[in-house]
Design brief:
single chain, 627 residues, alpha+beta, DNA polymerase, domain 1, nine-stranded antiparallel beta sheet, seven-stranded mixed beta sheet, 22 helices, 21 strands, 37% helix
Length: 627
């Protein structure tokens, strides 16, 4: 036997695999990460960016639990923006442009620094199952390698097929081999698979582009960070740029439709609804004469530009001709064509909330193999799978986050309860408790959980305690001190809100939407001095001020959401036995009985979220359970 026995084997070195391997190893398991190519670990196969709408919240949650994605992003980002600042704080979402090469190198540095983690470059062909329990994997080079648990994080590599015009060939990503045996092995073990499709845009040499003819999109003046730890501040940001397609571009693209694998039926898998190819866009939105493109730099020392919004599987000559019809791209040189890729995934309804298979014990799935799209969604699943695999083999209990606790909880509940027939992407609209699940309070929600299981260290919990005590002291100052009209009215006029006629508490003034606590501190010397006496850490102070202002302004809404969340949590705590005979419930429709039988929900809350299950069906279950 070439390799030793391990506690956990992680198959795949993408974003899910990195978080799974690092979390399990740091918790104490001996972990083997098997990847097709070590230099391609944590590769950003699509756009060189992290975060965005709801995705930024997920990264902050990963960080709060003790994961590494936020730290790696902070160390390698070249631009930072907080999206949706014009909307309420539930919608604020951090996003960063990353240096693609440095991102992968930083992740490799992190993994190499974990003593219990061994990386092996190989191809996994088979899972070894004995008495309905996984006991290892079979690889091309090392042969059989044994472990107590296995986590599959193979991304788009399972029977991956790349399409560029009429040309198609096997590959997990452009220039990398596909994994062609693992799906068959899992199928014979009883796990069902389906096909999905995704794609990536053309890359262009920035030296061949007139970037000055486009609209510049700079980063924030005071860039934030993803991690709650003391990662280095971002300096010398790079800009992104905006431009648009036009009717000429669309006409050229339509010429290629006869050779498009999307329209000729060669692609069978379902593509992402919310990130369609450019040919999809011009068909689906035929009335629009232009579509926006985001021009994103690939890194500080790279000549490549990523053309976000120009994903395509059309022939290369059509891609180039259409691209050169966009102002600024007349002389463009392509460094990599856009392409589509089809791959196998496994319906996540076959999983428990821990991401362990319902069919094979100690076998876990995370990332795109569960039907998701996006680095952030993959990393979150990897983190949860890694934690739960370690917890399972050590009999330490499961980590399952509720929908009211984290976007990660929403993500996994949606996948396991509802499944997906298209690449799943997280949005703020998917979370019914998004006012509670803000990016600013991820540490308050999740760091105690991460610390309890041993992933978030003592420094993190001390930092959280310091932030919490700082917020409490700030709130005390605001509630105990008042300001005179003569002192504050000039400021009120300046920010566009009505004057006061008598002395008022600072706390009442903060309730006004026009008043920002940071601006008030700059104006009011008395308040500034009071706050300065508790300010011993600039970064924590800024976080505390932001979180406190949100709590004050949205206190009523937050309380209502907590009440609703508490009611739903009570339903989550009513467990349903595994051996319930749903077909015996004659008071339910046949549809409800069939769906419950297929989903096998573990509790009443999960049952209530299954499509087609009505309140009366839930009442029948509650009566059956004596509730």
């Amino acid at each position: 036997m070439l390799l030793d026995n391990y506690d956990i084997i992680v198959v795949g070195g993408g974003h899910a695999g990195c978080e799974a391997a690092s979390s399990a190893a740091r918790l104490g398991s001996q972990v083997l990460l098997i990847t097709i190519s070590i230099p391609m670990i944590a590769r950003m196969s699509c756009n060189p960016a992290m975060g965005g709408i709801a995705k930024g919240q997920i990264i902050r949650e990963i960080d709060a639990l003790g994961g590494f994605t936020g730290i790696v992003t902070d160390h390698t980002m070249i631009q930072y923006r907080m999206l949706n600042r014009s909307k309420g704080p539930a919608m604020w979402s951090p996003r960063a442009q990353s240096d693609r090469v440095q991102f992968g190198l930083k992740w490799l540095e992190v993994l190499n620094g974990i003593p219990n983690l061994h990386i092996w470059q190989d191809m996994v062909d088979d899972v070894i199952v004995k008495e309905n329990k996984v006991i290892g994997v079979r690889t091309k080079i090392a042969g059989d390698v044994f472990a107590k648990a296995v986590i599959i994080t193979s991304g788009t590599f399972l029977n991956g097929k790349i399409h560029i015009g009429s040309n198609n060939f096997a590959g997990g990503r452009l220039g990398e081999s596909s994994a062609d045996s693992l799906t068959s092995s899992l199928f014979h073990a009883g796990i069902k698979s389906e096909r999905l499709k995704t794609g990536t845009p053309v890359r262009v040499d920035k030296r061949s582009v007139d970037i000055q003819s486009m609209t510049e999109q700079k980063g924030d003046d005071n860039p934030g960070k993803f991690s709650f730890t003391d990662t280095p501040p971002l300096v010398d940001q790079l800009s992104c740029y905006l431009c648009y397609t036009n009717e000429m571009v669309h006409d050229i693209l339509r010429i290629g439709f006869e050779n498009s694998p999307l329209y000729t039926g060669r692609i069978k898998g379902t593509g992402p609804r919310y990130c369609p190819s450019i040919e999809d866009k011009i068909e689906r939105f035929a009335g629009r004469d232009r579509h926006q493109l985001f021009i994103e730099p690939d890194g500080r020392n790279s000549n490549e530009l990523y053309i976000n919004g120009f994903s395509s599987s059309l022939p290369i000559e059509i891609q180039l001709k259409a691209l050169r019809s966009i102002p600024g791209f007349e002389q463009a040189r392509i460094t990599q064509p856009g392409y589509a890729i089809e791959y196998d995934y496994f319906s996540p309804t076959q999983l428990h909330f821990t991401l362990e298979s319902k069919i094979i014990l100690n076998l876990y799935f995370a990332g795109q193999v569960n039907g998701t799209t996006g680095y952030e969604e993959a990393a979150a699943q990897g983190l949860i799978a890694g934690i739960n695999a370690h917890q399972k083999i050590n009999n330490d209990g499961d980590l399952v986050l509720k929908r009211s606790e984290a976007y990660i909880g929403v993500l996994i509940d949606d996948l396991v309860t509802k499944g997906t027939l298209e690449p799943y992407r997280m949005f703020t609209s998917r979370a019914e408790f998004r006012i509670l699940l803000r990016q600013d309070n991820a540490d308050q929600r999740l760091t105690p959980i991460g610390h309890k299981i041993g992933l978030a260290d003592n420094a993190r919990i001390r930092r959280l305690e310091f932030k919490t005590s700082m917020m409490e002291e700030m709130e005390r100052i605001l509630s105990e001190n008042s300001v005179l009209p003569t002192d504050i009215n000039p400021f009120l006029e300046r920010v566009g809100t009505s004057n006061i006629s008598h002395k008022q508490k600072y706390l009442n003034l903060i309730l006004r939407p026009q008043i920002k606590l940071t601006e008030l501190l700059q104006y009011d010397s008395f308040l500034n001095e009071k706050f300065s006496n508790i300010n011993s850490n600039t970064k924590v102070f800024a976080e505390a001020v932001e979180s406190l202002e949100i709590l004050i302004k949205y206190g009523g809404y937050l309380e209502k959401e907590r009440e609703i969340a508490d009611k739903i949590t009570r339903l989550e705590n009513i467990n349903i036995p595994e051996d319930v005979d749903y077909m015996a419930f004659s008071a339910m429709s046949m549809e409800a009985r069939e769906k419950l039988l297929k989903a096998k929900p573990t509790n009443i809350g999960q049952a209530s979220r299954i499509s087609g299950i009505t309140p009366s069906d839930i009442s029948v279950l509650l009566v059956f359970l004596g509730r």
